[in-house]
Amino acid sequence: MAVCIAVIAKENYPLYIRSTPTENELKFHYMVHTSLDVVDEKISAMGKALVDQRELYLGLLYPTEDYKVYGYVTNSKVKFVMVVDSSNTALRDNEIRSMFRKLHNSYTDVMCNPFYNPGDRIQSSPGGPYFLCPYPVQVGPTSCVRSSPGGPYSCVRSSPGEPYSLCPIQSRAFDNMVTSMMIQVC
Amino acid sequence: MADTVLFEFLHTEMVAELWAHDPDPGSGVSAGSRGEEVGATTGQKMSLSVLESMGFRVGQALGERLPRETLAFREELDVLKFLCKDLWVAVFQKQMDSLRTNHQGTYVLQDNSFPLLLPMASGLQYLEEAPKFLAFTCGLLRGALCTLGIESVVTASVAALPVCKFQVLIPKS
């Protein structure tokens, strides 16, 4: 049950940051920001170690009284930071590892998405790149697919009564993965 | 068995399609001292850079997907070895034949039977057509290096088909 998940680019700016209690987001942003120093420390410490002992999962970065912060770095120096609730003692290390592995796989899929430019923010809200889907597709509980009269393409409607809007479909996969991690342990 | 040729066919069509939109020499034709065309025209340079940038984007995605599980790159040479072994095997089902370096940031990767040139000819036939078939692969190498944190300039040269050399220049910072 992650409380906050962040993806930081190798130049140390956030590509994606989301926390579940949406009030007080700034506290989590600050926590992630301070954890970057610990991540850099761990990476440089690992640089001096032998090749076999270097791995992507960095482990517990630092604990606070309410939260614990875990880190993971990929080969392309993209960092994942996860903040979990301290009260949730049932979370074991290998569960955190598997959550990070899933996050890494989702991030790799985002990278392979042709509509994603490397270095951009990962977003699935309206404001990202749009495209028309030529065949009906289910995108989420609040949207439905209609075919526009007289047109060969169908568009996605964001909610009943609103004019037709186009939504990016592929980048929702990353968002959904993060949502599932916040609801339950994967 | 058919998987290996799928990419080769797609690549051939990509090159043919991009070149087809540039039938006449553009306004950038430069005449040499003997009054003949020297070098590529602007239209052809555009097509080459489009091919290279396509390869770059693919290389960026591959550079993210292929290295897995271990943070194995301690230095530049390890990254280049990864390109020669894992990347080349993933894309062309064979390893690079030789990797040479001067340890000053210049690496020469040589492939003695480059799969994209193999079906074309063996020897000096079509030598002047070969560079456009290498642009995508140059971009691929540059993109993979970029994801792994190395800014570079990649060029390719062909002396005789299907042997080709990719030169990777990593500027010292």
From TrEMBL, chain B:
Xref: PANTHER family? TRAFFICKING PROTEIN PARTICLE COMPLEX SUBUNIT 6A (PTHR12817:SF2), TRAFFICKING PROTEIN PARTICLE COMPLEX SUBUNIT 6B (PTHR12817)
**What is the protein's species of origin?**
Macaca mulatta (Rhesus macaque)
Q: Which UniProt keywords apply?
A: Endoplasmic reticulum, ER-Golgi transport, Golgi apparatus, Phosphoprotein, Transport
Name the source's superkingdom.
Answer: Eukaryota
Q: Does Plastid count among this protein's keywords?
A: no
Task: Summarize the protein's role.
Answer: May play a role in vesicular transport during the biogenesis of melanosomes.
What family is this?
Belongs to the TRAPP small subunits family. BET3 subfamily.
Task: Share what the entry says about its subunit structure, partners included.
Answer: Part of the multisubunit transport protein particle (TRAPP) complex. Heterodimer with TRAPPC3. The heterodimer TRAPPC3-TRAPPC6A interacts with TRAPPC2L. Interacts with TRAPPC2L.
InterPro entries membership: NO_sig/Golgi_transp_ligand-bd, TRAPP_component, TRAPPC6/Trs33
Please give the Pfam families that the UniProt record associates with this protein.
TRAPP (PF04051)
Q: Where in the cell is it found?
A: Endoplasmic reticulum; Golgi apparatus, cis-Golgi network
Record-given protein name: Trafficking protein particle complex subunit 6A
Q: Does this UniProt record's set of keywords contain Phosphoprotein? A: yes
Provide the GO biological process annotations. Answer: Golgi vesicle transport
Q: Could you name the Gene Ontology cellular component terms for this entry?
A: endoplasmic reticulum; Golgi apparatus
